Amino acid sequence: MLFTDRLFKKVEPVWSSYLDHPFVKGIGEGTVDEDKFIHYMRQDYVYLIEYSRVFAIGSAKAKDLKTMTIFANLLHGTMNYEMDLHREYAAKIGISNEELEATGPSSTMTAYTSYMISQAQLGGVENSIAAVLACAWSYSFIGKELARWPGALDHELYGNWVRMYSSDEFAKIAEDCKELINDITKDKPEDELKALEDIVLRTSYFEYMFWDMAENISTWPVKELAR
Ligand SMILES: Cc1ncc(CN)c(N)n1
């Protein structure tokens, strides 16, 4: 059994719950509040900056050139392909790249990325890939699912988001992460596999919290501090 098959059994109930989350449903049905969506995209932009650091750590810790190159390509894909989506949305409503980058990080964003970065720093290259796996793979999972919902791909505002995360290019990013974790874990003992499984499960919980942050931010008594 591939390690990713084992992981999928573990995370599937959590990932399926994303599809019932009001914010994710709102993107698929085209009903999510526009201000909430912009706030989410701004948080997601600063999230992706921190997430990219995990690829950089993985590349630095890799023991061979092939693994180093895969991490470098994933970093490139995030910064130059995925983050273009956020820059395009921001440009449409008059937010410059500089303003986008200066977005004050929410506590949820900070907690999630701090966890990923600390796991990547604490362990070997396998921790880096475990830390980013749920991010890439669950977005591809959500994108493919929402693409089947009536009108989701063509929605005037949210269609771009659904098209990006259901695209073959994005699926390739998720597949590269899956292939890498399967390769890296081939001869690992059970205690190490379990530790990696825990990272993937915990980041899947953080993903849920991120959707919750996107939906509920306006009701929070906290403010985002400057970066
Ligand atoms: C919070 C989050 N998680 C994952 C992804 C997909 N890279 C994302 N854009 N944002």
TrEMBL record:
One Gene Ontology cellular component annotation held by this UniProt entry: cytosol
Keyword vocabulary terms for this entry: Hydrolase, Thiamine biosynthesis
Single annotated GO MF: thiaminase activity
Annotated ranges, domain Thiaminase-2/PQQC: 9-215
Superkingdom field: Bacteria
Protein's GO biological process: thiamine biosynthetic process; thiamine diphosphate biosynthetic process
Catalysed reactions, semicolon-separated: thiamine + H2O = 5-(2-hydroxyethyl)-4-methylthiazole + 4-amino-5-hydroxymethyl-2-methylpyrimidine + H(+); 4-amino-5-aminomethyl-2-methylpyrimidine + H2O = 4-amino-5-hydroxymethyl-2-methylpyrimidine + NH4(+)
EC numbers on record: 3.5.99.2
Enzyme kind, highest EC tier: hydrolase
Pathway, per record: Cofactor biosynthesis; thiamine diphosphate biosynthesis
InterPro entries (alphabetical): Haem_Oase-like_multi-hlx (IPR016084), Thiaminase-2/PQQC (IPR004305), Thiaminase_II (IPR027574), Thiamine_Salvage_TenA (IPR050967)
CDD domains: TenA_C_BhTenA-like
Assembly information from the UniProt record: Homotetramer.
NCBIfam families per UniProt: salvage_TenA
Family to which this protein belongs: Belongs to the TenA family.
Function: Catalyzes an amino-pyrimidine hydrolysis reaction at the C5' of the pyrimidine moiety of thiamine compounds, a reaction that is part of a thiamine salvage pathway.
Protein name in UniProt: Aminopyrimidine aminohydrolase
UniProt source species: Virgibacillus profundi
